[in-house]
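S1.2 Input.
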Amino acid sequence: MDQGLVSITTNIVSVAGALAAVWIGSRFGRSNDRRKKIRDSLEEIYKLSNQVNIWLHVNLRYLYKEIDKEDDAIPNVV
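S1.3 Output.
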C-alpha cells in the first residue's frame, strides 16, 4: 500500500510540475510575442515618420521654388 501511495503522489506531483512548466512557458512566450509586436509597431511608426519627413521636405522645396519664381516675376519698385 505504501508503494502505491508513493506512486500516486509522484504522479500527481509530476502532472502539477508539467502544468506549471507549461503555464510558465506560455507566460514567457506571450511576453516575448508582445515585445515583438511592440518592436514591430515602433519600427513601422519610425519608417512612416521618416517617409512623412521626406514628403514634407520635398513639398517644401517645391513650394520654395514656386515662391522664388513668383518673386522673380514681380518687378522691384523702389
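S1.4 Remarks. The first helix runs from residue 2 to 73.
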